[in-house]
Amino acid sequence: MTPPERFFCADAARARNDAFVGTAPYGFVWVLIEYRRSWPANGFDGLDLDPRTKALVFSAARAHRARVLLIRRHGRRRAAGSGRWAVLRHDGSGALRQQWGDWRRDQDLAEIVTALDSPGEPGRPPVVLVCAHGLHDACCAVRGRPVGGVLSARWPDLVWECTHVGGDRFAANVVVVPDGVYYGNLDARSSVAVVEEHLAGRIRADHLRGYTTLYPPQQAAVAAVLGRFGPAGRHDYAVVGTARDGDGWRIRVSGTPPRTSVLDVEVLARRTPAHRLTCRGPAGSSAVVYEVTSIRAG
């Protein structure tokens, strides 16, 4: 008897042409912890750390609505030596701040709690995270690790592999923090072009899942504007108004000169038919898709 063909959620999503715009998880703060050993399926939650320290970090991260991710350099599996940790923040003014430290003992991670209450330093280069969490979802390893390899070769000081960032079916996923920008459906070639453009201040719509500082309909509106008018910097467009309009939203987007000053974007949401959305998940899950129906000058 022939065994059933193995299911890969990213292959299935591409075959269905699943929309990925508006799928960036909302958030402003990230905690990164370098962990070179094998990552548990549930990431930081599954680590065998000093219970008191782990509880302190978890509680502080939850209070700040921070996402905790394990990170490691591509291809490096040595366990000896100290690791690094970081708190990265996209604050309300749009400033991008970071604070880094080292840890050797579990108790050293308690410094993260203090860092979460500190503003951090501006001016550091962004961190490029590639989801390669194969134990969480096979596609994150199959598609993520080759992307992690090629990006690490190009920008060795900026790029880290990381645990689950959400949206397994859009692997390979790349997140630039503290900018708060999610990209998906990447491969080795497209990832280099996307990151190169991002670092040059040109965010393109092609692989953009969204900005984490915006809600899904707002993410879809900004992505549509970028698709219509071309690449722009992270803060060249701002959402200045959001109103529910029947079954959708009217999103007002303001651009910096020489771009159109104000645009009104209409967005509708719909649910997809039920599908199997992750490699481990059950069949029969639906997703929300955000469709832009019009863009006009405000």
Short description:
The protein is α+β, with helices and mostly antiparallel strands and 298 residues long.
What does this structure look like?
There is one protein chain. The longest helix is centred in the last third of the chain and has 14 residues, at 216-229. It is built from seven helices and 14 strands. It has helices at residues 9-16, 51-63, 111-116, 138-142, 144-154, 188-199, 216-229, and strands at 29-34, 66-72, 83-90, 96-103, 121-122, 127-131, 159-162, 174-177, 181-183, 208-211, 237-245, 248-255, 262-271, 288-297. The protein is an alpha+beta fold and 298 residues long. The relative contact order is 0.15. It has a domain at 9-214: 3-Layer(aba) Sandwich (Glutaredoxin). The strands form two sheets. Strands 5-4-3-1-2-7-6-8-9-10 form a ten-stranded mixed beta sheet.
Give keywords:
single chain; 298 residues; four-stranded antiparallel sheet; 14 strands; globular
Distance between the termini: 63 Å
Tell me, what's the shape?
Answer: globular
Measured by DSSP, the beta-strand proportion falls in 25-35%
Give the neighbour order of strands across the main sheet: 5-4-3-1-2-7-6-8-9-10
**Rounded to an integer, what's the Rg over CA atoms?**
19 Å
| Name of the CATH architecture of the domain at 9-214 | 3-Layer(aba) Sandwich
Q: Portion of residues in helices?
A: 10-25%
The poorly predicted ranges are: none
